[in-house]
Predict the 3D structure of the following.
Amino acid sequence: MYVNALPRYEILSDEAMSVLDGGWRRIVSELGVEFMLPESVELFRAAGQKVEGEKVFLDPDFVLEQVAKAPREFDLVARNPEKSVHIGGQHMVFGGVYGPPFVREGDVRRDGKMADFENFVKLAQSFPELDTPGGTIVEPEDRPLDSRHLDMVYALQTLSDKPYMGSVISAENARDTIAMTDIAVGGRTSPATISLINCNSPLRWDDRMLSACHEYNRAGEAVVMTPFLLMGAMSPVSVPATLVQQMAEALSGIALTQLVNPGCPVVFGSFLSNTDMKSGSPSFGTPESAIGLLCTGQIARHFGLPFRSGGGLNSSQTVDAQAAYEALMTMLPTFLAGANFVMHAAGWLEGGLVSSYEKFIVDIEILRMLKHEFQPLEVTEESLAFDAHQEVGSGGHFLGAAHTLIHFRDCFYRPLLSSTENFDRWSKNGGKDAVARASDIWRKTLDEYEQPPIGDDVRDTLRDYVARRRIELGDEPIPTPAF
Amino acid sequence: MYVNALPRYEILSDEAMSVLDGGWRRIVSELGVEFMLPESVELFRAAGQKVEGEKVFLDPDFVLEQVAKAPREFDLVARNPEKSVHIGGQHMVFGGVYGPPFVREGDVRRDGKMADFENFVKLAQSFPELDTPGGTIVEPEDRPLDSRHLDMVYALQTLSDKPYMGSVISAENARDTIAMTDIAVGGRTSPATISLINCNSPLRWDDRMLSACHEYNRAGEAVVMTPFLLMGAMSPVSVPATLVQQMAEALSGIALTQLVNPGCPVVFGSFLSNTDMKSGSPSFGTPESAIGLLCTGQIARHFGLPFRSGGGLNSSQTVDAQAAYEALMTMLPTFLAGANFVMHAAGWLEGGLVSSYEKFIVDIEILRMLKHEFQPLEVTEESLAFDAHQEVGSGGHFLGAAHTLIHFRDCFYRPLLSSTENFDRWSKNGGKDAVARASDIWRKTLDEYEQPPIGDDVRDTLRDYVARRRIELGDEPIPTPAF
């Protein structure tokens, strides 16, 4: 489990925070927030909030009372206890890209298939830099929409032994996720799944996602209440205006979870970038999104909540220099802000439309570097290595110094993907750029993948569940692989 | 002039700083520092320091007394006063790559030529993100070594009207730089050049560079006293041990400048990365170098000195994803640390062996983004745009909101290089990746380059100087272009 013990980088003054605080209070009380699920509205009405149709006008202090019931930190357990993680505090948890319909493999861009989904779960299982494969790491377009979630959850459970994200399409899908989790991680006292509930921003929570959310809340499974904010489209073209909208949406959603089940685990979510006002397209890895990320961390801590933000976001069409600098332009602030739960940490390409095999490896390298970088520097007398200076003196070199010989194996970060070969050697070795090397790495990783052990009984019970539910949902039987 | 008014990111505790403080004191007093120029040693001896041959054992308090005479901040003037900059405080000044013998243009890697040098100066002049072309932006291998500096300084002076860096090969070269600067920027009361004096680390200052340094000090021109530290080769394999070595070297060098000419402008320099202990090659854009950079900023402020560090450093052989993430892995900490003078801010490739045209454009984009990002966020009632939220309400969109229509032109960063085109449009437009687009941009920039005005008399005087000195230095006459 990675703990980021370096300081947080904070750019909001107390005065700025107080202005933002006034802003969200005004939005929830004067403009209100829509909840498209009658059950949700009823919970607010019963708790004394003013309701007009689907719109709820919230007393900000009531919202904060509910928010205060949510845990500040919680464990997220895996079927392999060694892979359990902690959400909150100085902990940072990383998951794969979530949601793309397309795959990029080298120069080929195509529809995602179940085989790709399985490949990405295997890659996420193979790299310790990721704590979870995530959930919909790519949409398997070759599986029927109604029962696709069963195949995905089964693959997440059997090809990996890390925690995972559940289906949020409907209450029924959420119940399937929970039932399958009860089979694989029975008898748990902490959540074993963490699921993404997006706001239909601005200021509207969708009925299908809310119904899934309520299921997870009741079961004590974790949810991430996430305003979905592309400034200029779903929020105003102003970072502060977007931050107060994000507070209004996230806090109202979190308040709802605590009405459903006080004390259930929930994360303050953020997905905040901006529209390219010239092309009209979403834009990622932008300066504005980095600023928003830093502020979001500060805001979540202000309310004592763990938060989700960041990732290897970018708008690039290929795994080129743009993909890399945009990804790091988000990922480095992710560490500076200390995001507790980081979706899209590996594989995101083309504004999230594509799960890219090569980008996955680039992102793993970036994560490895940043986890190495964001470690406290131990400055002790011993670390000053005066003996080495004494040995080498002026004008010599340290390559053969005793201190170097003791420490050379683990003194510095060792890259996975990056090359420091000199030009001649690099040319002789084929002159492969970072994408070509990344391609070699993911193929080799899949070749060497080893499935984590799972009991035959557990696996068979899961298989039976998937087979039965697929037919109940009206889809043709498909043999469930005996992973 | 760019001012970075965001907070500095500091990771050293007071206790850590105190341990480091003890470390450099011990090095300068117990191990001493070598100064290979007799004149320098004599200055220390006359000031009461213990000398053994070329080695000077320094009283740390004496060092700090000298250091305290250096200005905390100073102006660096350009022949066009609008291009003058300020070194120190919250100011950050950026220059092009410095020193590569090779050029990369697309897929071609070749020796650098005078025509390349001129091209890079034109590019540096064209982009406001750079405050100075730097100095040896590429080595023009087609010019004789003895008189090459004349051609370079002449090109810097005539193809650009920004400040520039002088030659440091010898005292004679420094005198040429100063004489030519007197012609181009006569009557100045602040330095118009800033020159790089590297330490021959560990703990040795080289005679040729020192003799150039003394010339610049006496003329009141600025110097950057820079330990050259690739951990594992020129310093121990420990960041704290390297930091104290850097303090010992930089502070002893700065003390010398103040003995030569008390109050002369000087910058605390840092060039700190590590050896790849597997390949033995220098490695850039590493986690260790980022940590070193953050610490260096804190250390320089501790001594009240402006500091040089950072840049778009990387080890990559091509302008690929590695080149981009390594460059940003250094450049983002450069902003977090608030480096006052940033060499290698555009064009650096392949561990500094190559000046790359395409990487130059990638770096300009990175600089533009970071300068946009590192601006204080104004959080006011007005910035909350409550009217926009009132207008759009729940579930709508902000694309046509009045607030958006007023602000859409300048609300967000607008990219130079990055593309947000959707896949279909991007494919139709040729499917160009970042390198291909960067190639278009630098070529177009050179096509549209306009030379800054210079008086005929000044230019002719410079030409005459170059022609005369070239013959004095024993080289064949070459027509100096009438830029």
